[in-house]
Amino acid sequence: MRLLMIGGFLGAGKTTTIARLARGYLERGRKIGIVTNDQAAELVDTHFLRSQGFPVGEVAGACFCCQFNALTETLEQLDAQSLPDTVLTEPVGSCTDLVATVMEPLRALHGDRFDVGPFTVLLKPEHGLKILGARRRAGFSPKAQYIFLKQLEEADIIAVNKIDRLDEDARDELRQCLQDRYASKPVLFISARTGEGFDELASALESPSPAHASLMDVDYEVYAEGEAELGWLNARGVAQGASFELDELVRQLTRRLAVRLAGRQMEAAHVKILAESGPDVALANLVSSDSDAELSVASGVRVKRADVTINARVAGAPDILKGEVEATCREVAEALAITLPLESVHHFRPAPPVPTHRVGRDV
Ligand SMILES: Nc1nc2c(ncn2[C@@H]2O[C@H](COP(=O)(O)OP(=O)(O)O)[C@@H](O)[C@H]2O)c(=O)[nH]1
Ligand SMILES: [Mg+2]
Fold first, then answer.
1. What is residue 363's predicted lDDT score, i.e. its pLDDT?
2. What per-residue confidence (pLDDT) applies to 212?
3. Residues 6+ apart with CB under 8 A from 355
4. Residue 210 neighbours by CB distance under 10 Å
């Protein structure tokens, strides 16, 4: 089983990239599987990818590195259910040190079963230009920045995503910054939305994973503090009414929550809201405080009932985030003349990572 891990910061486009790669592999006759991962249950990514017809296993409750055995069990289940020859895995977007804690242990302990491909890390331009570029801006948390840079440092392949949104100057700026910092790494420019650069990505993914002779240093205190700056919220609810637009529901939820978060000066790392009604899905995303909430997947349908999944990762206190999400649901319910009670709400700060294995050194 060929195992490909697609990492990158929260909102970089991992799920969108995985869905496009998976479609490409299926067209070429390969059998695919996907494994998603999150700190808690009720994942938008899992529901969305399943709605696209892909076989998806899920590791929920902590990141792959801290749940290494759950990852291998999930891979075995996928293998038993759908015999994939290629599995795409998406680690949590606030996670780093995955080469030492996941890829190398998989090779060392299960190299007979898994052919681990190169580790691709997507660069999220919304934050990348602030962190790497000349438009460097104060205000972005230095510890979150530490995680962002560590993710790039351990990549076998860096893929700058969302180039459909970047003009030539921004592309050149990122190309130069990456060349200055990571001269030896292959850098690709892709758009998971339009498919630009995907032939190059797919062929780079066929290459063997390079040997990771020297593993990266990671300060686990800074890493843990960076993750713990985020309020994390996963919630599920049911929207019901006489008749409402599915797209409008997720669009309003995301937009109104964005306004509330801006009012609190809470930087959104990623907010994603999915509504499902039978086979119809609508998905809206917010990936930073200075970009607009957007409808990423439109359904075009009116419905009477929808299951709503809300995943928010926002710099700030989880209880304030919960209050704002609940207030947003009430506001949207009133605006659309529906009911939208939340049935399960998990909100927390991620606990310090304690990897199951770490090749090379102790944590
Ligand atoms: N314009 C543009 N948007 C993208 C692209 N890839 C992903 N997105 C959007 O970025 C947001 C986050 O994407 P997602 O795949 O959920 O990111 P993840 O958190 O890394 O899995 C969504 O609104 C996507 O539609 C891209 O290539 N171009
Ligand atoms: Mg995702």
1. 46
2. 84
3. 65, 66, 68, 97, 100, 101, 363
4. 13
Return the CATH architecture of domain 230-348.
2-Layer Sandwich (3.30)
Question: Which ligand places an atom closest to the C-alpha of 36?
Answer: 2
**CA 193 to ligand 2 center in whole angstroms:** 14
CA of 90 to the centre of ligand 2 (A): 7
Q: Which ligand is located closest to the Cα atom of residue 123? A: 1
Domain spans of the chain, in order of start = 2-210+218-226, 230-348
**For position 135, what pLDDT does the model report?**
64
Ligand in closest contact with the CA of 270? 1
Token pair in block for residue 165: 């949104």
Atom of ligand 1 nearest to the CA of 8: 20
> What pLDDT does residue 138 have?
55
Ranges under pLDDT 50 in the chain: 362-363
Q: What's the CATH class of domain 2-210+218-226?
A: alpha beta
In angstroms, how far is the first alpha carbon of the chain from the final one?
Answer: 29
**Quick check: do 2-210+218-226 and 230-348 share a fold?**
no
- Residue 9 Cα to ligand 2 midpoint, Å, equals 9
Which residue of 296, 309, 311, 314 sits with most ligand 1 atoms within 8 Å of its CB, as the best mutation to test the pocket? 296
User: Global pTM?
Assistant: 0.97
> What is the rounded CA–CA span in Å between residue 186 and residue 192?
18
Give the residues surrounding ligand 1 with Cβ less than 6 Å away: 8, 10-16, 93, 161-162, 164-165, 191-193, 270, 272, 285, 287, 294, 296
Q: How far is the CA of 254 from the centre of ligand 1 (A)?
A: 15
